[in-house]
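Supplementary notes for students who missed Thursday's class. We covered one full example, reproduced here. Read the sequence, then the structure, then the short commentary at the end.
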Amino acid sequence: MYSLKLILKNTFRHKLRTFLTMMGIVVALLAFGLLRTVITTWYGMVDAASASRLVTRNSISLIFPLPISYYEKIRHVDGVKSVTYGTWFGGIYIDAKHFFANEALEPKGFLDLYPEYVLRPDQKNAFILDRKGFIAGRKLVEKYGWKTGDTVTLKGTIFPGNWDFVMRGIYSGRTRNTEESAFIFHWDYLNETLKKTAPRRADQAGFYIIGLTDPNRAAEVSLAIDGMFRNSMAETITETEKAFHLGFLAMSEAILVAIRMLSMVVILIIMVVMANTMVMTARERMGEYAVFKTLGFGGGYIAGLILGESLLICLAGCMIAVVLTYPVADIFAAALSDFFPVFVVSRTTIYLDIAASVFVAVVAAVVPARRAMTLTIAQGLRRIG
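Structure (token representation):
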């Protein structure tokens, strides 16, 4: 008990230095936590992917479509429970600054395959029955203030022109990891318009989403589907939903590596700041450590005092950082909601903050603790006065 009181007194003997060190730790851990959350958010779609869903796309690239005639053929493959299809639309609302995910999908099949998109029954029926209807995520609706019955116009980029839609429902996510910023409308509306304006682009889907009767048969069903279209004009690649999303992430792997490296640099900065504080503290107290040794206290006890002080400063800064992480993450998410529709601080990130604090505290205490342990009484007493 006496040792804890001594550690506490030593920690706040130089209040300004301790305060500045703690604030440095807080700022660094906040940056570390946000960077790690960006990484986990990037992988959020992968974590939310279902093992019972497959995605079929053109074997050359996702930008090349597949004939809509593939639908009936895929539906009759053994092991397939249900099939839906869609196309990435890529429209812009007002101007390029107001961009969000928007897709043309076959509505009933999509909503059946994705129960994590929760929609009121009356709104679901209204959406399915209205070819010009669309549904949007709760966050997107709150951002733009839309109401059911409102007409929203998107400017086409992949499919040129102004496209008018009528809002028929607002969906919410069943879990916190479900994206609530998407804009979903009828594939039929897109296709019927293309038949009039660009017939050669009609009757094509960008991808097929397949529900399985048994997730354990994913590989077997994938091979059967791809084998059916081998040597055709539009060969396919069928993969699990998780593998499909990982394919997108692979294109931004360099960015993720850079973010990981930056988060490690932040930890190194904390370490340098903390090590500097502990070295200064230990150097000032060498005379006191010599007195401890004359009273019979061993080098291990003195090292424990130094380590305890280092841990107290780091963990106090960590606690403040953890408390601030959530409101700061909310501000960050609100400012960059177009890029990170789901931005949730995970428990793993908090555990990493704590682990990083303990690691920094231990490493920062090593050098001063070693010097204090090897210090002779005579060398230490010379520093007094």
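Commentary. The mean pLDDT is 86. Residues 31 and 266 are 7 Å apart (CA to CA). If anything here is unclear, bring it to office hours.
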